[in-house]
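User: My instructor asked us to take a sequence, write out its structure as tokens, and then describe one feature of it. I'm not sure where to start. Here is the sequence I was given:
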Amino acid sequence: MRRTFVNVVVFCICIRISLVAQAPDSVSGRVLDPTHAPVARAGVRMLSSGRVEIAQTFTDQQGHFTFPERCSPDCIIEVQLAGFRSKRVPVSSEELAIELALAPVQESLVVSATRMETPSIQIGSTTTSISAEEIAARQSLMVSDLLQTVAGAAVTRSGTPGAITSLFVRGGESDYTKVLLDGIPINEPGGYFDFSSLAADDLDHIEIVRGPQSALFGSDAMAGVVQIFSRCSTAETPRPQLEFDLDGGKYDTLHGNANLDGRVRAFDYDTYFSRFQTDNQGLNDAFWESTGGFNLGYALGERAHLRWITRADESRAGTPGQTAFEPPITDAFYHKTDGYTGLSLSDQTNRFWDQRLTYTYERSRQVSEDYGLDPPYYPSYDGHTSPVEFFDYPSDFQNDTRRQYLDYQSNFSLGAGDKRQGRHIFTFAFDWERETGFIGDPLSGTLPTHALRDDFGGTFQYQTILGKLFLSNGVRVEDNSSFGQTVIPRSSAAYLLRQSGGGLGTTKLKFNFGLGIKEPSFLESFSPEPSFLGNPNLRPERSRGFDFGVEQRIWNDRAKVELNWFDNRFRDLIEFETVSFSPYVGTYFNLNATKANGAELILETAPFKGLKITSEYTYLNGWITESSTPTDPIYGVGKGLLRRPRHSGSLGVTWNWWRLNVTSSTVYVGRRPDSDFADLEPPLTSDASYTNWNLAWAYRINGHVSYIGTIENLLDRTYMEALGYPALRIAYRTGARIRF
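Assistant: Let's start with the prediction itself. The structure tokens for your sequence are:
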């Protein structure tokens, strides 16, 4: 008996020693998506055999996680992040590689909301991402066409493709949205950006962040940020990937695109060229646009990466004028050339510290010419006639601006990410921007404007993750040579009230508050011409905005509902005012103010494999609160905001079946304040509502060739996005897409 007892004890001790030896001292791993890209800030839990939580953490920016705790061999690692299928795997003595499958309704990693990759479910700001798959499926030629279906955004094109195209976000002006291309600021000095020639070819995705973001990006981010990312090679083999698109159709339209990408050891490359041309539908209405560029990357070891991005756009559009009110101008045109280049060096110094240094250069040259003289005319439209005779005059307006931009950013992470310590991320960013420009018209007899402006900025951001609470607070100090120093704060929060993948899935509450600023334009600050004299003492235009909302995932992640409410205040708006009539002198002052509030309702659903439906509705209530002309019928106090509809919405349907992909996109824009700007009597002060339905399809003939096509304005509606400028009637394109 004694010997048997001793043998049993020895046996148990041996088993115990064996189990302890097999149990890892720590557990580590990496979380990846289906493309093997790292998944940042995913929640990771260590569970006992009884499914009791032992510890929790979050993945870092490279998808890595570590548990220092000792764990028995029957422990489980669970990874959970909204937009992905949750996954459980047993622990291992080796580093785990956990690949997450996508949920039917996906989330995305967003850079523009925090200046670093962050899952959208953990962001307090309101964001929208347009994926590469959606861009390819819709076959839209211009970025502005893609932005039409974004909640809170109103896109206005003054006529047919190639005409001046403006973006209004949540009641802001058309120069209140910061536009970035791979981190390169591309707004004109003073904030305005014309989307008329920004092609959608070779783009990876587009991010839209709504609400003031000047604490992160400085001037111009008064109402939001649009950041466009060009495609880089994801090839895992050294064999080059070649793609051709060629299609054409009505109005002598022709579109072609060629792309080559691949990888050679540590070097990856993506280069492209596209061309689009069309006669449109009237006299002097032709438009052509060419875009080309490259995206080159080189890995300097395992942690450092060098990337060089270059893009050039050139376009020419006839400018026939307000052809709904007047005969077309026969010889005027608008020629635009944009060039962007940026070189960045990123370094993952260690798991807790990464940094990036970026230098970019951007130039935009715009020329509007009209040398011929067309006969005079009296504008008229549908019983409205102007008593004033209008006449043509020669012009050669030139706007040539350049920008150098240098930016350094450093991110530090502290804390294990557990419930007790949380995770804390500190971001420091410093940038310098130099803007130079020439604006003038040699034929007008006015003095040209030569300008130079420097802008220094420093941003500090603190993010913390405490269980289901995600906080982001930041502040920026801006030193602008035009208006001096200013401080801009920002704060946002997201809280996961419920985290689940069942019938009633994850519930997210969110809140965002921020201030925004916008520097004056070159004309407003530096013009030497007495009739529109620049004012060097102008203050920046300012905004205050806050929004809150709720997101609810339902039906086993097959649907998501989002409801947002926002309130924006814009003040110190710059307005022109006459100072003297004899001699005539006018200049610019900070005089006006506006308000805008409203709500956004967004629904995404994927009821079954191959079908995706998205819809959004925006209600906007905006009006002028202070005006230099308080009784003006368009710009007076209490009047609605020009070209910003009270009601708007969209419906998108994508269906993949066998070899066929069909995408339907319908946009509704309600009645909105506008002006004829032609002295019509009685004046036109609003524009009618309209609906635009577009259809695109692609049929895969084999592994290399697809038949593609689109129909725009499928219902052949007659409407104007801006008064006086008829939109394009029904148009179609068909062709082929070839891949090798």
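For the description part of your assignment, you could build on this observation: The first helix runs from residue 2 to 22. Try explaining in your own words what that tells you about the chain.
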